[in-house]
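User: Show me sequence and structure for the first protein, then do the same for the second.

Assistant: Starting with the first protein.
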Amino acid sequence: MKEYLGVAAIIVYDRKLLLMLRDNFARRHPGRWALVGGKLEPGENFDAAIRRELKEEIGIVPEQLVEIAEYAHIDPDAAGKWSKFYFSVLTKDEYDKINKGEEGEKIDFFSIEELADLNPVGLILQNPERLEILKKMITTQKPISGL
């Protein structure tokens, strides 16, 4: 049993959620839409990891990045995984600077209605209760506890 540590960001602009299409080189879930984020590198803490992942995947680190959840869960591929989730509503200036980085096939923003057609992966996007909370965060553009 191997422990993994991960981070992911819920990035919202104009009531739409930013997702990344995982490329075919991804070890897990190639060709599927997911939140931006990834695993911690050795010796790295959660905050440093999310900043690095955002810079690598979307080219920016939003100024208003708030930690909203941390929990342990059982992952079918790797038991004992701890994840931390962050939330940010982008400014127009930040939105204009977003650019797909070195990972993933592409990035895009999706409305709540469009999410159902994407078949996304991830702890939040595949869990009905968490998905409802996520939809409220997208609509209100504010972090909500209970994720």
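Switching to the second protein now.
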Amino acid sequence: MYHALISHQESLSRPAFSIVGRGISRNIDISLCRQWIDECLKLHVNCLNRVALRLPSRVIDVGSSETLQDPCLVLVNDRCGSYATLSHCWGGSIPAMTTLCNYAERQRSIPFLSLPRQFQDAIVVTRQLGLRYIWIDSLCIIQDSQQDWIE
């Protein structure tokens, strides 16, 4: 399995994205990212034949780049597939998150424009990579559920 690690940089002097430790401009050529992933899956011993492993219990369905629908939280029940993962620092303020109160709403829709910019960027790149799912900890783990944290 591979993860596209994407983080939004606040400083204008830095690249807009960092994918697997490599800085790239906001005018991203997704074919280069796709090439890196393909090389990883073909050449790295730990990545060979690992395209479709079991998905985490919850992921965000980003839809496709053609539909541009709002993403939604889905319970995948031991399905296999490929997904991206957003690695981000929560910092001082808590980003958008899933709680027991908004869990049902998040399963219907997560309004794209309500998300922090780094989450929006990660969803766009995930779509452009042709992936259907992304895992973002603050959205995929129910933050105020002790049982969710145990699992």
